[in-house]
Structures are given as structure tokens and as C-alpha cells.
């Protein structure tokens, strides 16, 4: 494993709502080695998007980062002032979102949105920026880039818009690209094209990618490492190979067996119970009520993160016992 | 003939403004309209008690087929037989009665529930409309379906916004089965749900089908779920069915290049399974400008000059139909 580009330690994010404090992210640890594709997988409300937004310090009221460190390239992002943070966004760390059509500006042409960014962050002059933009549009696999430069988002298909988003995100040569469910809402064949493109562009530009998804298939196909989130906590993280070959946390095991597969026939299992509410969540393990191996201690204190086999991290009391 | 549901040569065309002719937009008297052929000559049958999966990507016409089947849309052409009765000519009372036997479950569990009706009202509505049941009978039936979908009685007085996503979809399912329909059309019922919820709903649908001995048309773009639930599967592309076969046969021996490409694009949750990806170039053409001959021609990795000739579904093996000039070659 190469040196980490991003190292999150003990990050806690709360949202202060009228109903109470939502403990959306609760003391998570996440390691993103340079040059790899790291997946964050979990169901809705597990805190994966909040984690991503925390890295960019884009948590808005009523949300607040309570504690923790986010080391990016050796600097703690949480110590930076807003003025120091702003130039990092978009140039060193960029992000692509779930719905490309709504993330693009509808009144600016696709090309201009990219060019603007190149001018701002790379301090390029008009001519050079224009050339780089067209080059970038070509690189993300769009035919006739000169024509597409002048098109507006509503004239492009969902897949095309996502390609423009990727071009935009990578135009400034960021070190870290955060992709938050980049293929949700796209058709399977288009989704596969977009993920192939992300992987290829990551390799070509050397960008490290944090890929947030709910789809274990995407993790298996594209990621090097993966962190599994449940109810605001990272319950397990490992290399993709280890996680699928030998999942250790009961939630991970259940998750892997609850997805139907096209390649093999098998019985589909379900995960009992529901994700616990995050206002006054259970004080011990947040999976305790859904777990078949639950012990007394699980309901009392939160299981500490154990490291096994070098880089396989898991937070479960059952592991030490068996 | 004599199949439970039979659809013959169904087409649904929509007149739309031709976007390529930009000048016509400026001229209100211009008559430049294009024809969007959403469904174009689709035929298939469903046997009693079986689940037919209908898969394809957005815009392929699968939801339009479903809406025509329920007569929520008027088909442009074609016939729809339900227990040997043609539904296309039905009006008034006949149409009303039809909906007692044919029900539909929609994709978005929130959007398909009236926000101002409580769960009890939602479930009573189909009983009021289609069955002249007494108050007691209605009450009994509401409690019965509620139990069948695994919901608690306490929820009866709640409104949709007070329910979780999974509960909402269960209410939708309960509403659809309240009149004990013979046939249920499921239009992407699990697409808006999370992994663990999806598994629960899929198992519930499977269980209900045998409990109610009903028949399903299961529409989805999620091939893994379709494989799990269906007996036979039809694959649609650009308004037509390109392949139809028994589910296990289709997934093991896909013959149409489109089916193969679609299957190869699905991510498999196992990093050690390596597959060859079949890449279709470009994107789906607009249904206003459908290519002549085989519709996949422009994107197909094995296209030959022959492919510009018309192609219809042909039987390639027992019960395995495919619309390709060179089925099974790669």
C-alpha cells in the first residue's frame, strides 16, 4: 500500500435539527492510498455523502463537523481557514455528483463551464484554455468536441453530461477526485462506459479516486480498497479482494448475500430489521439489533476497530471471540 | 391462442415536434412533426401463473407497453387479449371492471400515493371502486392485505409522508393486491429502494405471487432482480423485442448481441469473476429516427451489410426467440 493521500481520523459530523441531533457520521476512520480507487459503500443514510462533503468542508448548517482530522497531503483540512480552503476545492480536490444534469449550470455551454475552471485555477490565457478544454472533452470520449463545446446541458444526454462533469473535474489535474454515486440514474451500459472512463482517466492523470456507491458490483469491478459504512460508522475496510473473499463484519456478510447476481443462481438473503435512526442511535454497536451473533457487550459499548492481516480493519466484538 | 395474456403487434406512436428542424419551432403554422415510435410492433404472451420479465434501458418502450396493457394509454395499433377477450375496444363499465383484475405497482413509492389519503383510505379506495363491499367486508380485507405485505395495523391512520420508503412500497403493493387481481404489472417496483430493502420487497413479491396465485409482468432495468423473479424474460431495444426466452436459458445462452452487451455491462459483486465486456458504441438513437433494418445496426459489434434488411423474431431453439440476422455469433 502506497502512502496515504487522504487520512481521515475520528471524524464526527452532527446535524442539529428540530427533532434532535442527527449523528450522521460518528468517529470514522478512512485511509485513501495515493493512486488507488477507494470505494465507500453503504445504503442511503449511512453517511457516505456527508463524509465526502466533509472532505471538501462543504457541510452547511444545521450540519457541523464536531471533531476529527482530515489529513490531505499532510495538511489537516479542518485547521484551514475558508480562504485557505477555497483554492483547494476544484484544483486539488474535485468532485462529481450523482445527477450530472442538475450539477451543470444550465445557462452556460458545456465547454465554457470547463474553460472557466481552467482559466481560474491554472491561470491560463483564453487561447490556451480553449485548446485544453477541447482536448479535455475529446479525452472523455465525446465525438466532435468542438461542436459539443457550444452545446448546453439540456441538449446532452445523461451519459454525455456525466462525461462533461468528469472532464470538468479532471481539467485542473486534481490529486483527489471524489465521485459521489456517479452512475446512479444512468442505464447499465452507459453506467459501465462512465465507470470505465473514470478508471482510465484516473490511471492517465494519476488522480486518486474516492468512489461512493451503494452497488457492491461497482466496488468489485473498479475499486482497489473499500470501506463499508453502516449508520454513520465505518464497520469494515479492506482490500477489495479480501473483503469479498473473507468479509468479517456481519453487516458486510449480509450485504454481499442480499444482492441478486446475474452470473450464478443462489438464494437471496435479507438483512433483518432496519437501519437504526440516527437521533439517539444505539450506544453500543449500531448493527447490534440486526445482528445474529449479538452479545451483551455489543449493546453496551461501541466495538473498537481491530486491525487484522495488516490492512483489514473491522469494528466487531464477535471477531476477537471466534 | 388461449394464452392468459396475449399481445399482438402492439404499437404506440407519439407525434412530437421535430427537433432537427429548428426553423419549424419559430413557425407555428409549420407542420413538421416527427413520429416517436415508442413501441413498434411488439408481440408476446404470458402464461397463467408465470412471471414475465421485461427488460431494457430507458426509452426502450417497456413502460409504454405496460401502460397500453392497462389501457392507461391508447395503443396506436395492435391487439391485447386478456383471457381471450380483446381489451383494445373496452369502454366504460367494461374498462372499469378490467382494472379490478389487472393492477399495477409503480416505481416511485412516494409519487404513486396520494399525500392526502391515509393508509386506510388508500387501501379502501380500490375496494370501494371495484367491489361493492360492505363496511365490515372492507375492513376485513384491508386488515388482511396489510398483514400479507407485513405492515402493522398501527400504520392505518398514518399518511404517506409519515412512512419510510419500504413501508410506502408495501402500501403500494397492498393497494394493488386489495382487489385480488389476476394479473399485476410491476413497473420497476424496486428501483428506488436500497439494497437491503430491495431484497425484502423482492422476496415479498415472490411470496405474494404464490399466495395469491396471480400472474406478473415484471418490468425493470435491473437484470439481476429480473433473473431472480422471472420465469421467462423479454429484452426490448428501441421499441421492439429483440430476444425472448426462458430466464435461465436467456442468462446462460444469450443470442442477441444487445442482450449479450447488456449482460456483460452488469457489475458482478465478486472481484474474482473476470468477464469479457461487449461494448456497444455510442448511445441509443432517438426513437424519432429509428434505423432501417436491425435497430442495433449502428452500434452492433458484429453488424454486416445484411443487417440493413428487416428482421423479425425467429425461433432459434425451443421457446427461444431472437431478432438477429446472425444470432449467437460474436
Notes on the structure:
The complex is a heterodimer of chains A (322) and B (330). Chain A is α/β, with parallel strands linked by helices and 322 residues long. Chain A folds into two domains: 4-92 and 174-321, Rossmann fold, CATH 3.40.50; 101-173, no CATH class. In chain A, 34% of the residues lie in helices and 25% in strands. In chain A, the strands form two sheets. Chain A has an eight-stranded mixed β-sheet, sandwiched between helices. Chain A has a four-stranded antiparallel β-sheet with strand order 2-1-4-5, covered by helices on one side. In chain A, helix 4 crosses helix 5 (126-139). Chain B is of the alpha/beta class. Chain B has a single domain (5-22, 31-322), classed as P-loop containing nucleotide triphosphate hydrolases (Rossmann fold). Chain B has helices at 22-26, 62-69, 92-101, 119-130, 135-148, 165-177, 195-212, 223-229, 247-252, 257-264, and strands at residues 5-17, 33-46, 51-55, 77-82, 85-86, 102-105, 183-187, 215-220, 232-237, 240-246, 314-317, 320-322. In chain B, a hairpin with a 2-residue loop joins strand 11 (314-317) and strand 12. The relative contact order of chain B is 0.14.
Write the layout of secondary structure elements.
The complex is a heterodimer of chains A (322) and B (330).
Chain A: E1 4-17, E2 20-33, E3 37-41, H1 48-55, E4 63-72, E5 75-76, H2 82-85, E6 93-96, H3 100-103, H4 110-122, H5 126-139, H6 145-149, H7 158-170, E7 176-180, H8 188-205, E8 208-213, H9 216-222, E9 225-230, E10 233-239, H10 240-245, H11 250-257, H12 296-300, E11 306-308, E12 312-314, H13 317-321
Parallel strand pairs in A: 3-8, 3-9, 6-7, 7-8
Antiparallel strand pairs in A: 1-2, 1-4, 4-5, 9-10, 10-12, 11-12
Helix pairs in contact in A: 4-5, 4-7, 5-7, 7-8
Chain B: E1 5-17, H1 22-26, E2 33-46, E3 51-55, H2 62-69, E4 77-82, E5 85-86, H3 92-101, E6 102-105, H4 119-130, H5 135-148, H6 165-177, E7 183-187, H7 195-212, E8 215-220, H8 223-229, E9 232-237, E10 240-246, H9 247-252, H10 257-264, E11 314-317, E12 320-322
Parallel strand pairs in B: 3-8, 3-9, 6-7, 7-8
Antiparallel strand pairs in B: 1-2, 1-4, 4-5, 9-10, 10-12, 11-12
Helix pairs in contact in B: 4-6, 5-6, 6-7
Amino acid at each position: 500500500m502506497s502512502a496515504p493521500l487522504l487520512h481521515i481520523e475520528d471524524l464526527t459530523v452532527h446535524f442539529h435539527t428540530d427533532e434532535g441531533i442527527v449523528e450522521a457520521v460518528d468517529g470514522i476512520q478512512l485511509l485513501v492510498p495515493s493512486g488507488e480507487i477507494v470505494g465507500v459503500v453503504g445504503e442511503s443514510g449511512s453517511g457516505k455523502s456527508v463524509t465526502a462533503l466533509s472532505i471538501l468542508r462543504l457541510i452547511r448548517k444545521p450540519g457541523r463537523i464536531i471533531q476529527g482530522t482530515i489529513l490531505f497531503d499532510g495538511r489537516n483540512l479542518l485547521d484551514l481557514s475558508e480562504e485557505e480552503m477555497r483554492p483547494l476545492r476544484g484544483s486539488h480536490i474535485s468532485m462529481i455528483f450523482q445527477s450530472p444534469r442538475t450539477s451543470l449550470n444550465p445557462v452556460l455551454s458545456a465547454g465554457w463551464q470547463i474553460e472557466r475552471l481552467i482559466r481560474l485555477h491554472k491561470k491560463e490565457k483564453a487561447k490556451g484554455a480553449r485548446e485544453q478544454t477541447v482536448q479535455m472533452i475529446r479525452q472523455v470520449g465525446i465525438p466532435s468536441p468542438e461542436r459539443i463545446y457550444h452545446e448546453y446541458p439540456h441538449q446532452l444526454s445523461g451519459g454525455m453530461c456525466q462525461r462533461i462533469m468528469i472532464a470538468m473535474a479532471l481539467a485542473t489535474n486534481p490529486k483527489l477526485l471524489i465521485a459521489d454515486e456517479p452512475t446512479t440514474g444512468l442505464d447499465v451500459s452507459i453506467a459501465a462506459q462512465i465507470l470505465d472512463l473514470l478508471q482510465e482517466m484516473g490511471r492517465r492523470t494519476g488522480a486518486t479516486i474516492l468512489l461512493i456507491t451503494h452497488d457492491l458490483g461497482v466496488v468489485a469491478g473498479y475499486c482497489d480498497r473499500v470501506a463499508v459504512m453502516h449508520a454513520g460508522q465505518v464497520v469494515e475496510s479492506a482490500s477489495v479482494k479480501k473483503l469479498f473473499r473473507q468479509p468479517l463484519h456481519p453487516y458486510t456478510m449480509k450485504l454481499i448475500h442480499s444482492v441478486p447476481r446475474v452470473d450464478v443462481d443462489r438464494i437471496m438473503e435479507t438483512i433483518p430489521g432496519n437501519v437504526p435512526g440516527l437521533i439517539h442511535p444505539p450506544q453500543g454497536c449500531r448493527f447490534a439489533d440486526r445482528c445474529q451473533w449479538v452479545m451483551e457487550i455489543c449493546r453496551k459499548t461501541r466495538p473498537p476497530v481491530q486491525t487484522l492481516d495488516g490492512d483489514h480493519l473491522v469494528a466487531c466484538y464477535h471477531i476477537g471471540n471466534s | 391462442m388461449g394464452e392468459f395474456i396475449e399481445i399482438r403487434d402492439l404499437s404506440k406512436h407519439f407525434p412530437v415536434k421535430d427537433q432537427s428542424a429548428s426553423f419549424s419551432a419559430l413557425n407555428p403554422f409549420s407542420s413538421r412533426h416527427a413520429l416517436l415510435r415508442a413501441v413498434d410492433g411488439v408481440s408476446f404472451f404470458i402464461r397463467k401463473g408465470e412471471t414475465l420479465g421485461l427488460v431494457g434501458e430507458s426509452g426502450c418502450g417497456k413502460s409504454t407497453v405496460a401502460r397500453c396493457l392497462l389501457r392507461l394509454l391508447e395503443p396506436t395499433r395492435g391487439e391485447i387479449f386478456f383471457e381471450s377477450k380483446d381489451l383494445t375496444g373496452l369502454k366504460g363499465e367494461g374498462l372499469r371492471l378490467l382494472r379490478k383484475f389487472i393492477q399495477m405497482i409503480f416505481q416511485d413509492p412516494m409519487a404513486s400515493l396520494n399525500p392526502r389519503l391515509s393508509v386506510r383510505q388508500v387501501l379502501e379506495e380500490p375496494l370501494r371502486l371495484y367491489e361493492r363491499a360492505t363496511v365490515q367486508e372492507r375492513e376485513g380485507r384491508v386488515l388482511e392485505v396489510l398483514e400479507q405485505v407485513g405492515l402493522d395495523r398501527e400504520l392505518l391512520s398514518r399518511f404517506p409522508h409519515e412512512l419510510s420508503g419500504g413501508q410506502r412500497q408495501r402500501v403500494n403493493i397492498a393497494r394493488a393486491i386489495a382487489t385480488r387481481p389476476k394479473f399485476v404489472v410491476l413497473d420497476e417496483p424496486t428501483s428506488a429502494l436500497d439494497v437491503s430493502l430491495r431484497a425484502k420487497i423482492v422476496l415479498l413479491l415472490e411470496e405474494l405471487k404464490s399466495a395469491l396465485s396471480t400472474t406478473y409482468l415484471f418490468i425493470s432495468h435491473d437484470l439481476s432482480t429480473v433473473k431472480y423473479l422471472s420465469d421467462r424474460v423479454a429484452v426490448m431495444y428501441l421499441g421492439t423485442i429483440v430476444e425472448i426466452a426462458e430466464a435461465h436459458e436467456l442468462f446462460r445462452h444469450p443470442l442477441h448481441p444487445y442482450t449479450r452487451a447488456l449482460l456483460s455491462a452488469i457489475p458482478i459483486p465478486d472481484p474474482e469473476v473476470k468477464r469479457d465486456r461487449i461494448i456497444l458504441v455510442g448511445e441509443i438513437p432517438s426513437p424519432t429516427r429509428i434505423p432501417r433494418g436491425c435497430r442495433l445496426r449502428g452500434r452492433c459489434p458484429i453488424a454486416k451489410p445484411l443487417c440493413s434488411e428487416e428482421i423479425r423474431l425467429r425461433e432459434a431453439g425451443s421457446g427461444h426467440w431472437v431478432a438477429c440476422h446472425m444470432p449467437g455469433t460474436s
